[in-house]
Amino acid sequence: MTDAFSSSSEAVLQRTVNVSTITTTSLAGNLAQLYQIAETSHFITSNQFKKVALQFPDELLPDAVRVSTEIEKETKAKTFILGDTSYGSCCVDEVAAEHVKADCIVHYGPSCLSPCRRLPLLYVFGKIPIDVQQCAAAFKELYLDPQSHVIVLYDVTYSHAIGDLRTLLCDIYPNVVISLLKTDHSSGAELIQDSCVDNNHTDSQDDSIVFKFGRQFSVKAGQSVDNYNMFYIGQEGLTLTNFMMTWNHCAFSSFNPETHTGRVESVQINKALMKRYYAIERAKDASVVGILVGTLGVANYLTIIEQLKDIIHKAGKKSYMFAMGKINVPKLANFLEIDVYVLVACSENSLLDSSEFYRPVVTPFEMELACNKHREWTGEYVTDFRDLLPGGSSHVGFPESDQSAIEEETTDVSLITGALRSCSTTSSEIINGTSLVPRNQTLTVANTNTAASFLAGRSWQGLETKLGQTPVVKAVEGRRGIAIAYEEEGVGNKDASTPL
Fold first, then answer.
1. Which among 360, 357, 353, 324 has a CA at the least distance from the CA of 339?
2. What is the β-pairing status of strands 104-108 and 411-413?
3. Cβ count near 339 (within 10 Å)
């Protein structure tokens, strides 16, 4: 799952791209219909936008120029194509849009529907073909009982066909609930109307409304989400994983529109949760935490970063913040003094599999479990960090320091190392980067700043300026080629067995 942010650099450098094949595949239907150019043009002209940023995922970039040309022809507005996003392509790249001083953003393709705050936004999911009849047939094979309570979730790119699916199912299955795509209106985001399911049925006023991950559905009075089965339409990926981790008490089934097959999802959620719990234990053992900024567009990301800094400090740990764009193994391996990383990203990209990394990567929810003794592990899982903020559905306040607490109440036993560890700062306080522990009415240094000690012991500590010590020389021609095989490598080297 590390490819949520980046893929193998060597594979990217060596692969070839057949543009004509990709364009033919993506243009299975009419260009204007697939990218809903008429609706997009109406959004731009009705709001009198002059500069428009068009954000495409990598797989749709071959069509970007043609879509941009059509929109400029229809609206007379100036368009800018946003391609290589700094983070996951499912998130809106508001920073890149602000670089060109755009008035709005049009986001194409799959989306996590995370709320944004800076610019007006239009989602265009596209109309990926799907056989609704086969989808309904797969549903009937998976749920033989017409009284089954099922919630239908789907990838946003298939939202255009959900209305037809409801027509085929709801008369046979009265307890089926079709989720609706919905954005946070306060963020200024809009959905093209015909890409959403019309809510043509009346829900009881006693039904409870659930709004999560851009999906809204109602649960009958006296019932909870855990009493329902989940049916997902789309390919296996981050979206399905996010749903299964969040509603881990529900039985999931899915239909893959590409293979036209339905199946019961056999992913062992309990096993996945235990892996995440192991990462929590590693976070409890950590003394130095790295906060990875994995988004610059999701609303309230700065607020959760400040909250993480606060709880990490109160738990007696040191924190450092890293903003490095797309995350990969070599980047994080440069900072071996960090014991654990916490990733601040959208709900889909937060669940990063850190098995390939040298240090675990946890979510803000897992970091709070490690630092806040008032938050207990109940099996509930939170992937949206906004739920952890004050006023959120899963917010738990950090306990105030109790000076009368005895040491036994502020220590814990690590399930990994078996050693005692401190759970709070009641017995030690961090002063000027050094941990001091009171002993016999005096302050004795227990351990110094871990990260600073590690850096001081490094043989290479980074580039040194050496002002005035380095002679000034004219610019010379540098190396040619790519990093894994420069052209001059092997020249003059007697040990080189084969020339490049």
1. 360
2. unpaired
3. 19
